[in-house]
Amino acid sequence: MDQLEILKEEMFYDSRELYDCYFGDHAYLHYDGYWPFLVVGVKDSTTNVYAIVEFHSGCEGFKYYHEKLFGTKVNSYVTYEKEFKRVKDWVAFFRKKRMYNMLPSLQ
What we know:
- The protein is of the alpha+beta class and 107 residues long.
- It contains six helices and three strands, in the order H-H-E-E-H-H-E-H-H.
- The protein has helices spanning 3-14, 16-23, 49-56, 60-70, 81-86, 90-96; strands spanning 27-32, 37-42, 75-80.
- A hairpin with a 4-residue loop joins strand 1 (27-32) and strand 2 (37-42).
- It is globular and about 40 Å long.
- The mean pLDDT is 90.
């Protein structure tokens, strides 16, 4: 079972609201456990206030569970649906934008 599946299961049993934010129909997700980082593409149709607050607070709930379960901090990048669908390679995107804080092993 990969890390995202473990996080999904933990949130499902522990915090349904948080589970709904990430695994309901509010956002697109890209998770990379190697670096680790999470990219959230908020769907234009999202009206769930809890999800919007969670995403705009920098995904604090997701970060909490990640550190609790795996003992490592995770970086997050929140964007909108249009940009999320346009980017094919997030590591290259962060390198091009010189967002090396998203790729801690390059610092």
